[in-house]
Write a structure and sequence with these properties.
Layout (H helix, E strand, L loop, with lengths): L11 H9 L2 E3 L5 E3 L2 H12 L7 H10 L5 E2 L2 H10 L8 H19 L8 H18 L6 H4 L3 H7 L10 H10 L3 E2 L2 E2 L3 H13 L5 H16 L3 E3 L1 H6 L10 E5 L4 H16 L3 E5 L9 E2 L4 E2 L4 H13 L10 E6 L5 H4 L17 E6 L1 H9 L2 E5 L12 H16 L6 E5 H15 L3 E4 H6 L28 E9 L12 H21 L5 H10 L2 E6 L1 H8 L6 H29 L20 H8 L16 H10 L15 H5 L12 E6 L2 E6 L1 H9 L5 H9 L12 H6 L8 H12 L10 E3 L4 H13 L8 E3 L37
């Protein structure tokens, strides 16, 4: 029963409710006395590190949710329900709610709550039991139990790192990442991180090295210094270690190969891969089919089947399968392709679930600028256009136009380039698709142009790798958490970056050898070229630490400086791995082999475009790159590609930082995902407003009223309004400028969302032309206020008021695509 000495609540009804509960129900279904003192201790212990949390209030609200013979595992659910509505009052409530969820998890996994002082002992005791259970259930690789020094692995577990999670992060892991058996989770957070680390270390040479590297990997993951992509977190150390994020394929112009591509898509999607399909080789509508003397229906019916395949294979219920199709702008079906996502028209020729992207050659952009004509061809009559880029493409395309005029080409159509461009942009605004991606900078700056052609990007537009009928490109991703690599003033900590990048590159490279490949073409490509994609997250958070608005020259300069440093050490780490394990198979003849670094490859684009009005490149650098060049010359490269910035839609939630390179969407909003709805509040803003004595119920009310925007809140100083501008306040020019500075250091691409509050044709035209001129390889979603609607909650000054919002801005709060990260 309740001890009066421990009970300090003022709410008599809550007190009566607590006193009425004599028994709870155990996990096994038995009754046992309710030990209120222990329960209260658990709640108070969870709150003790957060002085701004009202512990009394949480206990009172929790007791309201209890009832006689409540299941033991529901005790902490009651605490979670009590505390999560207060996250809007203070971000500290998010960490307290996570602590309650952690106790719920301990009860589920171990059958009991575990206080802080006992966690190290419990973790160490549980790890071998977990491995034995996972192996017995055929979920874990048996080598996890035999190939490591388990005593050292156990000793390395650090329960204190459980406290790094906020509620959204831990709930995301709880719902979708932790391994479960018979609907009961068998993983605790530090066991989860160690399972991933051990899975990635299995390919190391000896038990001693495996153990050493597993502990190094675990330390980095569990501290949120670096987080692997979602497929790696799902599957590392399991019996089906499909650890790669992205797969890129080219669909040949053959009926058998087209149907093989559907099977390949299904197998790749089954094990959590995101797909990018290049459909350009498939002949267009009206083309002659030699074998039957019939007429082709074009690519649209085949895309419809690909769309339905992605929906049918839902990655084991963890998330929807996801695919993006790519088509070059000269394909004769491009006009109908632009309509694929429309909600009107013949539904048999619509793909409502498939993402689509334009693969645009520079010549088309030149014709748009010059208001020239553009000719559409069917690829069976112009087959080499698919594999050409730059000046070679322009010369051959011009010859085909002459051939068409002379009657040597049958199936073609002449249009105004600007009319196709306008339709691209209007469909992008109306449906969110197709995305704008650029073929020539993607190819001309590819280190692997000697070994093939980049025919498309991936599902999230950051991967740029060669594809062919024998090679399905594969990329393995992970992201550096910039917040963890800057001091309190937001200055980069170079030594830590060097250390983290070196360890992370080894993890990424190990994925290639440990990986399960659903199709042979993927294994062939990945083992031959060994590409990896090191990215970043927390860029916006780091700007807050630096007191720099995203809409500033300071932000652009920091984008340049931070990416240069990461690029420097990623390339250096790859050369060190090459010295230890050997260069990748197709290294000879690459840009690396020619001594051309990513920043220098910009020259190739300049030379190809020929007109200074069509390119604006920056070559400034802060570091001395001579040692990197010397290391490459000496050792070669272990990886054909090293860098790509993915969206980090999920792993940034896990780490509790801002997504990828994204600006802050709003300072207060509700994010929805497969785990439910979560209040998101800007902790940096809250800290600043507390210092000014401006953080109170009235301020929360004002933030709700103005949808998380500070502009109309008069009491907030102008300095803070500028610092905490939201995504639609930061002009797209600043996002493009920052991305351009990053792009010069990156050998692949970036998932770059563009925001525009009130779009019109002229603004979109200028924005995407500017992105092309600044040398970007790809863009991702276009987000506009016109596509957003916020349903406000009842706005009162009641402290329990919760934000209630339904926001749809190209899935920003409900990211459908998590295949990358």
């Amino acid at each position: 029963m309740i001890s009066p000495e421990s009970f300090t609540l003022e709410n008599e009804n809550a007190t009566e409710r607590a006193q009425a509960i004599r028994y709870i129900t155990t996990v096994e279904g038995e009754k046992k006395p309710f030990d209120y003192l222990s329960f209260e201790k658990t709640i108070l212990e969870s709150c003790e590190s957060f002085p701004d949390v009202d512990r009394n209030l949480i206990i009172e609200e929790t007791l309201k949710n209890l009832y006689e013979e409540i299941p033991e595992e529901k005790l902490m659910t009651a605490a979670i329900m009590a505390s999560r509505p207060f996250i809007e009052r203070d971000p500290s409530y998010g960490y307290v709610t996570a602590a309650f969820l952690l106790q719920k998890l301990f009860t589920e996994v171990l059958g009991k709550a575990v206080h802080k002082s006992d966690r190290k002992k419990e973790y160490m005791a549980y790890l071998p039991k977990y491995l034995e259970l996972g192996i017995a259930e055929k979920r874990l690789n048996p080598k996890l139990l035999t190939e490591f020094n388990l005593e050292k692995i156990q000793e390395a577990l650090c329960p204190d790192r459980d406290e790094k999670f906020n509620f959204l992060g831990l709930q995301t892991l709880y719902d979708r990442y932790f391994i479960h058996v018979n609907d009961r989770r068998i993983e605790l957070p530090q066991v989860f991180w160690m399972r991933v680390a051990m899975g990635l270390a299995l390919v190391e040479a000896t038990q001693e090295i495996r153990t050493e590297k597993a502990i190094a990997f675990y330390t980095m993951l569990s501290n949120f210094d670096y987080v692997s992509s979602t497929p790696t977190l799902f599957n590392a150390g399991t019996t089906y270690p499909q650890l790669s994020s992205c797969f890129l394929t080219t669909i040949p112009d053959d009926l058998g190969d087209i149907y093989k591509s559907y099977r390949d898509n299904a197998l790749l999607s089954k094990f959590s891969g995101g797909l990018g399909n290049d459909w350009t080789p498939v002949r267009g509508l009206g083309s002659r089919i030699k074998g039957t003397n019939g007429i082709s229906q074009g690519i649209i019916p085949f895309l419809k089947v690909a769309n339905d395949t992605a929906i049918a294979v839902n990655q084991g219920g963890k998330r929807k399968g996801a695919v993006c199709s790519y088509l070059e702008t000269w394909h004769i079906d491009v006009e109908e392709y632009l309509d694929l996502r429309k909600n009107t028209g013949d539904d048999r020729r619509r793909c409502h679930d498939m993402n689509t992207a334009n693969w645009i050659p520079d010549l088309f952009m030149k014709r748009v600028h010059e208001k020239g004509a553009w000719t559409l061809f069917s690829p069976e009559e112009t087959p080499d256009l698919h594999d050409l880029c730059g000046k070679a493409f322009e010369e051959r395309y011009a010859q085909y136009e002459v051939d068409a005029e002379n009657g040597k080409i049958i199936n073609f159509k002449k249009v105004e380039a600007v009319n196709i461009w306008r339709k691209m942009l209007s469909m992008l605004f109306e449906t969110g698709h197709p995305w704008i991606t650029f073929k020539d900078p993607s190819n001309l700056r590819s280190p692997q142009q000697h070994a093939g052609v980049v025919h498309s990007s991936n599902l999230c537009t950051e991967i740029l790798l060669n594809t062919s009928s024998t090679e399905t490109a594969v990329c393995n991703l992970g992201s550096i958490n910039l917040v963890q690599h800057t001091d309190e003033n937001g200055n980069l900590m170079e030594e830590k970056i060097k250390e983290t990048v070196s360890v992370a590159m080894r993890m990424l490279d190990n994925v290639i050898d440990q990986n399960y490949y659903p199709i042979p073409e993927a294994k062939n490509s990945n083992t031959k070229h060994r590409p990896v994609g090191m990215g970043i997250m927390g860029f916006q958070d780091t700007l807050y630490k630096r007191r720099a608005s995203y809409a500033s020259d300071a932000a652009v300069s920091f984008a340049d400086e931070s990416m240069e440093m990461i690029s420097y050490y990623a390339i250096l780490a790859s050369t060190e791995l090459a010295g230890e394990k050997g260069a990748y198979e197709s290294y000879k003849g690459s840009l690396w082999d020619q001594g051309i670094l990513p920043v220098e490859s910009q020259k190739l684009v300049e030379e190809s475009r020929g007109n200074s009005d069509y390119i604006e490149a920056d070559y400034s650098a802060k570091k001395d790159w001579a040692p990197v060049k010397e290391a490459i010359k000496k050792n070669g490269m272990r990886n054909s590609n090293c860098m790509a910035i993915a969206p980090t839609a999920t792993i940034s939630n896990i780490a509790g930082v801002s997504q990828s390179i994204e600006p802050m969407y709003k300072n207060l909003f509700v994010k929805s995902n497969m785990s439910g709805e979560f209040t998101i509040i800007n902790p940096y803003l809250v800290t600043d407003l507390k210092k000014l004595n401006l953080w109170n119920d009235e301020m929360i009310y004002a933030l709700k009223r103005y949808d998380g925007n500070l502009t109309e809140i008069q009491s907030i100083p102008q300095e803070l309004k500028e610092l905490y501008q939201t995504a639609f306040e930061v002009g797209a020019k600043w996002l493009i400028d920052a991305a351009s500075r990053r792009q010069k250091w990156i050998d692949m691409g970036q998932s770059l969302n563009l925001y525009i509050a009130q779009p019109n044709g002229k603004k979109l035209d200028e924005m995407y032309k500017y992105a092309w001129k600044k040398g970007l390889k790809t863009t991702y979603y276009l987000r506009s206020m016109g596509a957003s609607s916020v349903e406000k909650s009842t706005i009162t000054t009641n402290e329990h008021t919760k934000v209630s919002a339904q926001v749809n801005a190209c899935s920003i709060e409900d990211p459908e695509c998590e295949a990358c990260q």
